[in-house]
Write a structure and sequence with these properties.
Distance between the termini: 29 Å
Low-confidence stretches: none
Shape: globular
Largest sheet: 5 strands, antiparallel
Number of helices: 4
Strand order of the largest sheet: 3-2-7-1-8
Radius of gyration: 17 Å
Helix content: 25-40%
Order of helices and strands: HEHEEEEEEHHE
Strand content: 25-35%
Length: about 150
């Protein structure tokens, strides 16, 4: 039936959009980065570098990174979306494991920069099955609304 196939396509499209936006958890291959001694600027730079390298979904210590997520210096720790991070963080990035790892580990790349400039430490591993959770944030825009 033609009407039903349109509904199925719409449901599939909605699921894809929900996954991309962080509204639902996702799974796939990618990399896991264990990082020590990072500041908020380094966390944000690493997130941007992974996005630029093709990461399809990201989490820092199980906090889903969305378009509005940003690491900030908190009162006693770095915070993302109001959640404090520990001294050692784990970044999960779903995407091409080889591509993601090559982008961040290239000579003169972001890991090398932060190892030298702020004495950060990193352990990167490729993983066949990662799970990135859904965001717990309310993503309803405060000012924007759909165009009709």
């Amino acid at each position: 039936v033609e009407g039903q196939s349109d509904i199925v396509i719409s449901e599939e499209a909605l699921l894809g959009i929900s996954a991309f936006g962080g509204l639902v958890g996702v799974e796939g291959q990618g990399i896991r980065i264990r990082a020590e001694r990072l500041d908020a600027f380094a966390v944000n730079d690493l997130i941007h570098e992974l996005r630029n390298a093709g990461a399809e979904a990201l989490a820092v210590d199980e906090i889903r990174i969305t378009a509005s997520s940003v690491a900030v210096p908190g009162t006693s720790a770095i915070e993302i979306d109001g959640v404090p991070l520990g001294p050692t963080i784990e970044i999960t990035a779903i995407g091409s494991p080889d591509g993601l790892q090559a982008a961040i580990e290239r000579p003169g790349g972001i890991l090398n920069l932060y190892e030298q400039s702020i004495d950060a430490r990193f352990t990167v591993s490729q993983v066949d099955r990662l799970i990135v959770p859904a965001t717990e944030r309310d993503l309803t825009p405060a000012a924007a609304r759909p165009v009709e």
